[in-house]
Amino acid sequence: MTFTEIPLNRGDTPLYQQLASALAARIEQGALAPGDKLPTHRALADQLGVTVGTVTRAYAEAERRGLVEARVGAGTFVRDPGRPVWSFEEREGDERTLGYNVPPAIDRSDIMQAALEELARHRQALNRLMLYQSPEGSGQHREALADWLNRHGIAVDPREMLFTSGAQHGVQLALQALCRPGDTLLCERLTYPGLLSLARQQQLQVRPVELDDEGLVPEALAAACRQHQPRLVYLTPTLQNPTTATCGERRRQDLLAVCREYGILALEDDVHGLLPAERPAALVNLDPGQVVHVGGLGKALAPGLRLGYLQVPGPLRDRVVDGIQNHSWMISPLLTALAMILVNQGAADQLLTLVREQMRQRWQRVAAALPGASLRYHREGFHGWLTLPEHLPLSEFLIAARQRGLDLKSAELFTPPGHPAPAAVRIAASAPASLDALDAALTLLADILDKPPAGGAFTL
């Protein structure tokens, strides 16, 4: 249909309502079908000789009536009446993203549907789960998760463990419970940007400690403790973000010995710890009295669960409980129940296996596409650390990537303020929506890396 055929009059009914009603009539008559894209606000305003504001209000009114839906960055579309208004529009994968450290896209719908159906079968329990509960969470849920984690080599105690709204929330709770404004926090020389943001919000002094191929260097940690008298040290000993370094058993023991000597706690971020099928013992296994352990189910199972866990040494636990109560009173018992159904049904192990298999396939593609690159990765991890060729400065590489629409993360994001960033980038092989999308992103990346320097310098 042509939109110039829509009759509008200058009577008592506002023009935007007339336009919304006209759209409704066209949809009812079949002239506009589900999925049809409507003209932009400006284009329709020009066709009808009305203001852009009139069209904007008309589209908003049509959306309120459930006739159309606005999709961010895409436009306004006729809604399928068979699909609930609240449902999320499925987004197409960006073929140029290697940026975000998210789990690979796998079909979780059957597994989640079975878990939701199991939850819905227990009507009395379901009603109880929708009531206010203790910020400590259900003891049964904590026992179920602790048992599952122990089977995967992470020794947590259900009496001391607490649920959180994701692993980053666990880090936030730990910092708030253990630190005061002005305290010094040690971290790896390259570290998780979320940690830097949280430290800034809490007015903590961040001091970086040297890394090597096996993670945080014990001698450097000891020197930093002597110099700065820190409150605690934040570290990621398994699949470090961004370098993927993993501390061996001896290195972990040496780091804990330094913490004991200087009387500081180790804040162990184990958010990637479930990904490797084989890994060294978590720090919390080796000395639970010296370690604040943070992990989550988002990376291993599904980010939408938004469920993490935190264990602190016994005397400090009450501070974290108070923090949970102050933040949100409790962590959703409905959510923790759903996650524990996944655990008890064996679905959690199934999802973890699927994620590992998918990542092994993806890193095979990466290795084939970038055979000469200085790239460090773990075949079951999400991200890799790419050191740039000597002829390719970081700034010029990032310009070239932006020009091609390639999304990846610069070393600058992982570097504490006031310190130099290496010429390197983090690439997340997990981010593209499919293997084909991964191949497309890798083709762009390989093209940038292979471009020869002109006159001794990289040119675009």
TrEMBL record:
GO terms assigned for molecular function: DNA binding; DNA-binding transcription factor activity; pyridoxal phosphate binding; transaminase activity
Record Gene3D superfamilies: Type I PLP-dependent aspartate aminotransferase-like (Major domain), Winged helix-like DNA-binding domain superfamily/Winged helix DNA-binding domain
Keywords associated with the record: Aminotransferase, DNA-binding, Pyridoxal phosphate, Transcription, Transcription regulation, Transferase
InterPro entries per UniProt: Aminotransferase_I/II_large (IPR004839), HTH_trans_reg/aminotransferase (IPR051446), PyrdxlP-dep_Trfase (IPR015424), PyrdxlP-dep_Trfase_major (IPR015421), Tscrpt_reg_HTH_GntR (IPR000524), WH-like_DNA-bd_sf (IPR036388), WH_DNA-bd_sf (IPR036390)
A Pfam family the protein falls into: GntR
Annotated ranges, domain HTH gntR-type: 13-81
PANTHER family referenced in this protein's UniProt entry, alphabetically: HTH-TYPE TRANSCRIPTIONAL REGULATORY PROTEIN GABR
Family of the protein in this entry: In the C-terminal section; belongs to the class-I pyridoxal-phosphate-dependent aminotransferase family.
Name under which the protein is recorded: PLP-dependent aminotransferase family protein
